[in-house]
Design brief:
five-stranded antiparallel β-sheet, single chain
Amino acid sequence: MSEVLGGGSDIGRLGHGLGLRLTEWPSLAPHDTTALAPGMVLTLEPSITVDGGAMMVTEENILITDGAPELLTSRADRELPTA
């Protein structure tokens, strides 16, 4: 994901665990080698810098299962409005 985004997030991670405190362990970053296990809920939260230096952050919540991960959030439209 980092390579596709041209180097990744300015905060050094591309997501995190989601729980009672919203942002929780693990960090989805090269330094965190936590094994993913069924029942964990994670966010994929890549960010990119867009025209004029603004930052766009998107977040998808995913449940880790024994099989394929389950997407918990609705996908955004392919064409996003800009202000």
